[in-house]
Amino acid sequence: MSTEIITTNQLSKFYGSIRGIHEVSIKVPAGGVGFLGPNGAGKTTLIRTLLGILRPTKGTANVLGYDIKSRINEVRDRIGYIPEFNTSFIPDMTAMKFVAFCGRMNGLAHSESKQRASDSLYYVGLGEERYRKLGTFSLGMKQKVKLASALVHDPEIIIADEPTNGLDPTGRNQMLELIRNLQTDQGKHVILSSHLLRDVEQTTDYAIVFSEGEILAQGNIKQLTSGRRSSISVKVKFNEEHFLNNLKDKGFEVWEEGGFIEVKRVNDTENAIFRAANETSTEIRYLGSRSSTLEDVFVDLFRNKEGIQ
Amino acid sequence: MTIESNENGAYVKKFSFRPFAGIRRGRLYRIWSISWQWWTHEWSRSRAVKFLIGFQLFTLLITNIFILTTKDFLLLGGLYESTEQILEQTLISLVRGIVSFQTEIRGESHGSGDNGFDGSFTIGGTSLFILILAVLVGSGLIADDISNKTNEIYYAKLEKYEYILGKFGAFFIFGNVIITLPYVIEFGLLFVGLGDIDLLAVLPLLFQVILFTELVNLTYAAIILAFSSLTSRKLYAGLTTFMILFLASMIVPALAFKDNLVIGLELLSDVLTLLLISSYIIMGEVEFQLVSMDGIPYPVHLADGVGIEGWMVLGGIGAIVLVGILVVIIQVYRRHST
Ligand SMILES: Nc1ncnc2c1ncn2[C@@H]1O[C@H](COP(=O)(O)OP(=O)(O)OP(=O)(O)O)[C@@H](O)[C@H]1O
Ligand SMILES: [Mg+2]
Predict the structure, then answer these.
(1) Is the predicted pLDDT of residue A54 greater than 90, yes or no?
(2) Per-residue model confidence as pLDDT tens digits over B249-292
(3) Taking CB atoms and a 6 Å cutoff, what residues make up the pocket around ligand 1?
(4) Half-sphere exposure of B166 toward its Cβ, with a 13 Å CA cutoff?
(5) How far is it between the farthest Cα atoms of chain A?
(6) How is chain A split into domains, by residue range?
(7) Would you call B7 and A51 a contact, using CB atoms and an 8 Å cutoff?
(8) Which of B8, B26, B37 is the closest to A101 by Cβ?
(9) pLDDT at residue B4 is higher than 50
(10) Per residue in B33-73, pLDDT tens?
(11) Phi, psi at residue A14, to the nearest 5°?
């Protein structure tokens, strides 16, 4: 049995001539994954295609073993979806009624839907407010209602599209914590779509990076960060210019950042640095390894992409 | 803030999330839950709906009291031949009142239409009231989902055609409660109140009443939902629908009646009058009169090859319903899948 929960093969979706996603082939591993990418990268398009809201222009996809073309309703019952919009849905309906209604649309019997709606609302921390009308809720509460309505039918996968949009720091942390707990405590697979790297880093170990409808990179966040751009920070006493050029001549990628000289780590980088220091008769005052954040990777990926074009 | 988050944590532990082990219900149940959810919500929040029901029942009650107290007089005076006929005439004119604005156009059958009572029990406001309420309530059915983005939730859980069926179902619940049910109740009340009636003799009438009101429901549903799907503003949808239906029935008959002898085909663009004429078709009548606002009766013959014909009327209604449904389908499928 494979451990992938979602696989797509050359999946494309065009809005007329506008590109939503283009030949996306991904394998989403069990557990948690972040969909990362700037505005318009195609995250929402991919999610909506996986849910059968949009019909793919080309390609195939498979969710938990069900083909999205022939078995989409099996897929829908197994996914809890938090759309990205900020809306109160049915403003003069109580949270309870709305969430229970969502459960019934996924096939829960009437009494079961009420019970589970109540459970879900307690779970997201809206137990006390569950009989209040949605229109009176704050943005953070609305987001939690969305989460509750995505949980009510007990899906295996939760897909949250920009769930922290517009939230203050407290709300943001609460939301991310809830989502992370779903993975760690409840054993759900969680997909978090965001253009904020911090959100993804806080919640998942695995990331898929999107840009302009295509996949730039996918992999474990630790690997992505170490593989792509881990560097060695160096400070030298004098002859900085010479030292830098010497390393460049040796074929290293070198740049300055925050008062340090950064040397991209490849095999045997440290030795080369010491040799360069010798050859340019300078003195190394500081040498440290720097593992970059996902943010750096992200920026780097885009830099490379633009360079290619 | 930390206290709040701790409280939340406690709730999570206390109510921990139970896995769902039951069997999921089928597709029909889910479609029905859209319809039913909408209706119960509309019912609980809308005073107008409750008021209309009350108004309808009040009208029927007054009619009943009047009919039952004058029953003997009506029979002795020779105005009616039997209690069956009283039941028939009363109910038919009440039902026609759903689609005919009493002040403007009114149908009368040959023969029994001259007794002065035909149609006089219909309170003119009923038709207008029903139309306004149907539009008021129904035009939000799809438009609200678009403006509140609720359709994203529906489409993530259901097929789009299931959503459409659910919305039509929702309107049908409304239509059956507001339009069909009161007249079925009225049938029962008159039947019991008048007494002495052979049930088998009047049963076809009950079926005709149900058939006609369901035709009205279907037509209203198709038109109102079509306009509702065309905009995200409930108000625009509602106003447009109402203006088109209302103005057509104010203006078109006058044009269609220009020529005294032949009723013009302009009438085909007036949905309400088409529905009125279809009530005659359902009752099996081909010859009758339509009375214009100034009281002039215009003879209509639906099977003489001149002017408006029966098949045109039914075809016209069919076409309107079809176009309405098509608009909804195209809008729902196009709006989010281009
Ligand atoms: N309904 C639509 N009609 C036409 N083009 C669309 C539609 N929805 C999205 N697009 C286009 O498809 C591309 C991908 O958009 P998408 O919403 O999937 O990006 P995203 O990664 O979710 O961005 P964001 O972070 O802003 O949510 C964009 O160029 C967008 O303009
Ligand atoms: Mg998006």
Answers:
(1) yes
(2) 888 877 877 766 677 788 888 898 899 899 999 988 888 888 77
(3) A 15, 18, 20, 37, 39-45, 84, 162, 195
(4) 29
(5) 80
(6) 4-221, 231-290
(7) no
(8) B37
(9) no
(10) 999 999 999 998 888 888 888 887 888 888 888 888 888 88
(11) -110, 140
- Considering CB atoms only, which of B11, B41, B159 is closest to A93? B41
- Asked if the domains at A4-221 and A231-290 fall in one CATH topology, the answer is no
In A, which residues are within 8 Å of B17 by CB distance? 119-120, 123, 151, 154, 186
Name the nearest CA neighbour of A5 among A79, A106, A83, A82.
A79
- Hey, which of A22, A24, A36, A39 would you mutate to test ligand 1's pocket, going by the most ligand atoms within 8 Å of its Cβ? A39
Measured distance CA(B250)–CA(B252) in Å, rounded: 6
Class in CATH terms, A231-290: alpha beta
Residue B208 is assigned to a structural domain of this protein: yes
CATH superfamily name and code, A4-221? P-loop containing nucleotide triphosphate hydrolases (3.40.50.300)
Whether B47 has its CB under 8 Å from any CB of chain A: the answer is no
Subunit contact A90:B17, Cβ cutoff 8 A = no
Please report the ipTM that was assigned to this predicted complex.
0.85
Domain assignment of residue B5, yes or no: no
Per-residue pLDDT tens digits for A251-299: 888 888 777 888 887 777 888 888 898 898 888 888 877 655 556 666 6
How many structural domains does chain B have?
1
* Exposed / middle / buried, residue A279 (Cβ in 10 Å: 0-12, 13-18, 19+): middle
The range of the structural domain enclosing residue B230 comes to 26-335
Across the interface, whether the CB atoms of B17 and A104 are under 8 A apart is answered: no
Do the Cβ atoms of B225 and B171 come closer than 8 Å? yes
Half-sphere exposure of A228 (CA within 13 A, CB side): 23
